[in-house]
């Protein structure tokens, strides 16, 4: 159906069809039926548009994260280049920073986060830029000791398969940092 027919209810006419009609005051049955046809046509088009919009909404909502935070929760923020001053964020820098405490909930999708003043950005974040902070898994007492030893038999052809007897020991930890990965690991 053409857009003209949807709006007006009939196919467009040529210039020769546009002859002035005589003026009379009685109601025509054909005009009444035509008006009723147009009303039903508009209702049908409106119903189809609503169904189409609902289908689009359903597809869009399938990808949304429905998550809310409360005041006092800890979150990781997503680092975006456009949010920070130029030159502050580098290409290979971590994609997330945190954890930071939520100070205030402004709505269902906006939060005020407790950021250090040296960040130089607004402390208000959209929910799409926040990820719930999960505590890292417990670190084994000796990180160089595998939790389940791998047993392999040494072969003369491969000297690398010989078990190592040397152990390294950490003398002092100078600094630590939490970095989030794409797979939501830390």
Automatic annotation (TrEMBL):
Instruction: Indicate the segments forming the Tf2-1-like SH3-like domain, all copies.
Output: 72-133
Q: Where is this region: Disordered?
A: 138-174
According to its UniProt record, what is one Pfam family this protein matches? SH3_Tf2-1
Entry superkingdom: Eukaryota
In Swiss-Prot or TrEMBL terms, this protein is called Tf2-1-like SH3-like domain-containing protein
